[in-house]
Amino acid sequence: MTARAQLILANRAFLDHEAPRWADSPSTASSGGLLAAVRPVIAPWDGHSGTTWIGVGMGRFDREWVDPRGYEILETPRGPLRHRRLFFGSATWQGHYGEVANSFTWPLFHLVRVDLPRATPYYPEPQPPSAAGWQSFVVVNRAFAEAACEEDGAQSCWVHDYQLALVPAMLREREFRGPIGFFLHIPFPSLAVIRPYLSGEVRQRLAEIVRGMLGADLAGFQTPGDAERFAEAACELAGARPAAGGLEVDGRLVRVGAYPVGIDPEEVLAAARRAKPVTRVRAARELGLPVVVGLERGDFTKGIPERLRAIAEAYRQGKRFAYIGIASPTREGVEVYGALEAAIEREAARAREAAYWVGCPFTQVRAAVGWDDVVALQRDADVVFTSSLADGMNLVPLQAAIAQSLRPTEERAVVLAGVDAGVTKVYGGDGRDGLRAVDPLDQQSLLEGLTEGLEGRPARISDRFIALVRERDARSWGERFLDDLEGTC
Ligand code: F6P
C-alpha cells in the first residue's frame, strides 16, 4: 500500500453525522457498499502521509457552510484518518442528491434492460434534472474539487462514484498536482439499451457526466463490461478515441479498467464468530425448517417485489421454509422511491398469506439491522436470496461466502444473485461454487433457483468460492487501483 498522502473524495462522509456540530453530537459509522469497500484501503494518517477523506456532512442546513474546525483526526480500526466534511444547504442538497444523483443518474445507470420501468412499475424512469437541480450538482462537485485543491500535501486524489462524476474534470481544470483516479461503484449503462431515453436533455447531461469522469487519469469500473460501455459512451458522447490501455481525450491518455470491489473478510469473520443466531432463525430451526434470507437496502434496483412473488408461489406449491426478508431504509425523502414500498407491502402480504397456509414463518420488514445480525443471518441461512435487477457488485454474496466458511461444506448455503449483478459477472453464476444466477424478472427462474437452493443444488458454497473472495478482498482492490493510478504519472 502506498505510504503517500492520498485523498479520498466520496459523497458519504466516513461517519454518518446528523448534527452540524462535530464533537457535540453522537455519530455512527457510515454504512453502504462504498464505505465497506473503501474502509479497508485507508492508510493510517501520520501527520504528513496516509489518508484524508472528504465527504458531505449531511445537507440539511439552511445555508452552505464549511466546518470551522476544518479537519479532524478520527480513530478508525485502520488507524487515524484525517477527515473533513462539507455542508450544503437543503435546496442544494435536494438538487444534487435528490434530483441528479438519485432520480436521474442512479435509475439511468442501472437500466440494464430498457423495459425495466415497464416490467417493474415501481422502477422510475430516469428524470432529467431541472436547471436548478443540475446547478446544485455542479455546486457540490465544485466544492469537492476546491476542497481537494486546498490539500497542499496530497499526492493523489481518488474520487468515488456517480455523485462526484464532475470532480475529475474540475480537478484537472484547477491543475490538481497529482494523479486523479475515479471509480464508479455502480454499473455503467449500454447506450444501445438506454437509447430510447437519450433525448436531447438526457443525452446532454449524460455527456457532461462522461466528460467529468474523463478528467481522471484512471477511470475504474466494477466489470470489464462496464469499462467497455463507458469507453463506447465516451467516444460517442464526448469525442474520446480508443487508445492502447484506455481512451485518448484532448491529447492525453485516460486509462480505463475493471477493478471489481471486494470486502474485508476478517471483519466479516470476526462478526460471524461472535454473533448470536437471531431469534427467528432459532425459531425456524426448532420447526425443522430451512431458512431463506433476503437482505438489502430497500432500493428499486434490488428486485424485492418480484422475489416475494416467487416466494409466495413456492409456498403455494407446498414448499416449506422460513423466509426472513429485511430491507433497510434508504434515501428516504427521495420521491422516486415512493412506489417501491407499496409494491413490497403488496407482495409481502400475498407471500405472508401463502406462508400461513403451509404453516411457515414469513417475515418481510423495513428495518436497519446491526452488523452482527446481518452477518449472523448470512452465516445461518440455507439460501441467501438476492435478485437485483442490476447491481455494480452486490457484496451480500461475498459476505455470505465468508460468514458461511465457519460451517462444514455439506451444511453451507446456496447463494442466488441476479444475472446482471456484478458479482455473477465476476465470480460466475453457473452454481458450481454455490453462487447461482437467477433472472430477477423471470418468475420461473426465481422459483427454480429457490427450489434448487433449498435442496443444496447445484452446489453449496465451495472452498474455492471462499478462497476467491478472500483473494480479491477490498485491500487488494484498493492497492491495485492505487498502484495503477500511481503508474499513470
Ligand atoms: O454500493 C453502495 C452504494 O450504492 C454506492 O454506489 C453509493 O455511492 C452509495 O451506495 C450511495 O448510497 P447513499 O445514497 O445511501 O449514500
Description of the structure:
This is Trehalose-6-phosphate synthase. Belongs to the glycosyltransferase 20 family. It holds the Pfam family Glyco_transf_20. The chain has 489 residues and is α/β, with parallel strands linked by helices. The chain has 2 domains: 1-262 and 473-489, Glycogen Phosphorylase B (Rossmann fold, 3-Layer(aba) Sandwich); 265-471, Glycogen Phosphorylase B (Rossmann fold, 3-Layer(aba) Sandwich), CATH 3.40.50. Helix content is 41%, strand content 19%. The chain has 18 helices and 19 strands. The strands form 3 sheets. Strands 1, 4, 5, 6, 7, 8, 9, 10, 11, 12 and 13 form an 11-stranded mixed beta sheet that branches. A 6-stranded parallel beta sheet has the order 16-15-14-17-18-19, sandwiched between helices. Strand 18, helix 15 and strand 19 (435-438) form a beta-alpha-beta unit. Helix 4 packs across helix 5 (167-173). The longest helix has 20 residues, at 90-109. The chain starts with a strand and ends with a helix. Bound molecules: 6-O-phosphono-beta-D-fructofuranose. Residues 11-12, 32-34, 161, 185-186, 330-331, 392 line the site of 6-O-phosphono-beta-D-fructofuranose.
Quick summary:
The protein has 489 residues and is of the alpha/beta class.
Assigned CATH class of the largest domain: Alpha Beta
State the end-to-end distance.
Answer: 17 Å
The ligands found in this model are: 6-O-phosphono-beta-D-fructofuranose
Radius of gyration: 22 Å
What would you call the structural class?
A: alpha/beta
Dominant shape: globular
How many domains, as an integer?
Answer: 2
Poorly predicted ranges: 18-27
